[in-house]
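Entry for the shared binder. Reason: the reviewer on the internal report wants the predicted structure included alongside the sequence.
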Amino acid sequence: MVRDDPAAGRVAMVTGAAGGIGRAIALGLAAAGSTVVLVGRSRDGLAGLATQIEARGAAVLRVTCDVADEASVRSAVATAIGQFGRLDVLVNCAGARQTDSALVDLPVAEWDRVLAVNLTGTMLMSKHVARHLMARRSGSIVNIASIAASMPRSHRAAYGVSKAGVRQLTKVMALELSAYGVRVNTVSPGATESPMLEASISMARQSSVDARVRGDLALFRPRIPLGRVATPEDVAAAVLFLASDAARHITGHDLRVNGGEAMG
């Protein structure tokens, strides 16, 4: 454990911690010396990760939470603060992928489901953690958006809109919370090795969706200048930077981790 790291001694809450990117973020924060609150829909789903973090000598707490439900969010935040006395960092990584569907065929229930987790969930978690951070007049919120926020893709309307909403929400929060010393930023990954990407590829093989995502991970590489898809650890490194004092004069920023796939 690196005790002189800027994250050392902080309490960080990570939603979607059981996923590929969320897991890497939680492990990175723990390795940097942070106490980590793992948030997910199932405590059992986070058990292995919690054991791994504890084995490294870091304090950890598992909290069951549906990020789209305000009562559940309020309870999760209260539990974390009750256990550790404070929160310093929130990483909103919980996400839902969209099933393959053209907009004209997209069920309203599917639209609502994706936006409820990706956008409303980010808003609710931020709302309740921000109240605590405002009172402490310090803290950092990092929201996980996506390259899909600025690169429209066929059959992915709900997902792209939800992530574009996360970027705009981040900018609004950055303005509102700046007077309290609270910074809010986004990290927007491109193609990243993760269960969500693998599921999207598998779904694309069975449909007529954009040929750029049909097949396997190798098909992503020709359109990524750096020649490879991101790893979850690449994304985690960007999150740790924005959450730390090394980024103390950065707020309202979108840090793109995409190997140059989308520029500007």
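Summary line for the report: The chain has one domain: 11-192+231-256.
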